[in-house]
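Supplementary notes for students who missed Thursday's class. We covered one full example, reproduced here. Read the sequence, then the structure, then the short commentary at the end.
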Amino acid sequence: MTSQTTQNFAKADQSLGHLAIQIPGATAIFRKLKLDFCCGGQQTLANACAEKGLNTNQVLSEIQALEHHELPPLTSTSIELIDHILARYHEVHRQQLPELIRMARRVEAVHREHPQVPTGLADQLETMQEELLEHMAKEEAILFPLLKLGQHPMAVNPIGMMRLEHINHGAQLEKLAELTTQHQPPSGACNTWQALYAGTARLNEDLIEHIHLENNYLFPQFEPSAQTSHCV
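Structure (token representation):
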């Protein structure tokens, strides 16, 4: 398996800007609570919460909940692995893509005159969201229930289809990397732009790990070669 990403461990004495950039998804929480992470990004989370009359610990807990990097043990049963994929990846993709699209639209509009503005990024993310939602819905409604039944002969064809769609997801990630200059914001980029690229980098990492777990650990257990290999 690929190595786990180092956790950021959000703290109340860190600035809103730092948290927005380092923890993808934090921007959605800040927007909901009307905490200014862009122009007011130098303020600490604790001070910002105090000014708004918010419970700092509750807000911090919400942010820390985004720092999910756990990987299942290699000894996990297929059912445990499926449940992990649903919670760690399917639900996370559903949360992260709408916020990334929103930030991309803003960056493209506000910085449209910048030579490195990622024109077309929001459209690319919307395409990825549409394809991922459809893909995950098929897994949840058809494939995963079959796999939870055990060595079901009807599972082989859906697995083949999911593998083909995974190839397309990989191609979409390559386009994403091109649009974001490998997820590296330009010098002097605002907090929103930096948070956007931190989020696209996390999406890239999450989707690669998601596909890896399915292709190399889950699916082989239900294919003809399952008894001889766990890799493809």
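Commentary. Confidence is low (pLDDT under 50) at residues 1-7, 226-232. The CA atoms of residues 49 and 56 lie 6 Å apart. If anything here is unclear, bring it to office hours.
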